[in-house]
Design brief:
single chain, binds fe (ii) ion, 2% helix, 2 domains, 238 residues, disordered C terminus
Length: 238
């Protein structure tokens, strides 16, 4: 299966409530955002657990990254309410479930082989830091091999400088309205700006909260050679 599998292309997926498909497990549905492969895939998805749904015990062959968007997601390591960021590295296993139901943003099989840290961050309690321009606040979630992931909160009427993404950029809009010269992205929108793309993002009166990952969109989805010494890379709010 190939969904938005050409990582050279810009993709904007608005959330119109459609596109949900049953998974092989009862009570678990998913909306595929990008995918290369079948049931074992390099994949980015929204995943919805009905109350009481669970998943079989599974091995994370190439890692699993999760942001809990709503409800409570649980596994052997505990209960993870909305706002929790999890990384389950290559070689880890778990048996996830949800008592009350939950909505997750999930990225599968996108870890570097040496990215072996287990991460659990409660983003509703963790400290934020000031971003590069007034009105911007950043909560770093993970950094490894030139790939950075963060939550970025944009106060109303914040404007960032024009910048380029040497290794691409992926954004999920969590709250508010995120904008740039190419469009408007309300909460629920997922966008992928390819390697080398450029834009000037801003917010209006609503402000915005976004999940953002940069540096991971090389040729064929392989991590590119973006380095922290790149001036353009350093210009980004992450
Ligand atoms: Fe998992
Ligand atoms: Fe950007």
């Amino acid at each position: 299966m190939q969904i938005h599998s050409d990582f050279h292309l810009r993709v904007v997926e608005h959330d119109d409530g459609s596109g949900w498909l049953p998974s092989p497990l009862p009570g678990v549905e998913r909306r595929m955002l990008d995918r290369v492969g079948g049931e074992v895939a390099r994949a980015t998805s929204l995943v919805r657990y009905a109350p009481g749904a669970g998943y079989e015990n599974h091995l994370h062959g190439a890692g699993e990254e999760i942001l809990v968007l709503a409800g409570v997601f649980s596994d052997e390591s505990g209960d993870h309410p909305a706002g929790t960021y999890l990384r389950n590295p290559p070689g880890s296993r778990h048996t996830p479930f949800s008592r009350e139901g939950c909505l997750l943003f999930v990225k599968l099989r996108q870890f570097a082989a040496d990215d072996l840290s287990t991460v659990r961050i409660d983003t509703r309690q963790a400290p934020w830091r000031q971003g590069l321009v007034p009105g911007l606040a950043v909560l770093p979630l993970h950094a490894h091999g030139g790939i950075d992931t963060a939550l970025v909160r944009w106060a109303p009427d914040t404007r960032f400088s024009s910048h380029r993404h040497p290794g691409g950029e992926e954004i999920l809009v969590l709250e508010g309205l995120f904008q740039d010269e190419l469009g408007d992205y309300p909460a629920g929108t997922w966008l992928r700006n390819p390697r080398g793309s450029q834009h000037t993002p801003f917010t209006g009166p609503q402000g915005a909260l976004i999940y953002v990952k940069v540096g991971h969109l090389g040729v064929g989805g392989q991590p590119p050679c973006a380095t922290r010494s790149s001036p353009a890379f350093n210009a980004y709010p992450v």
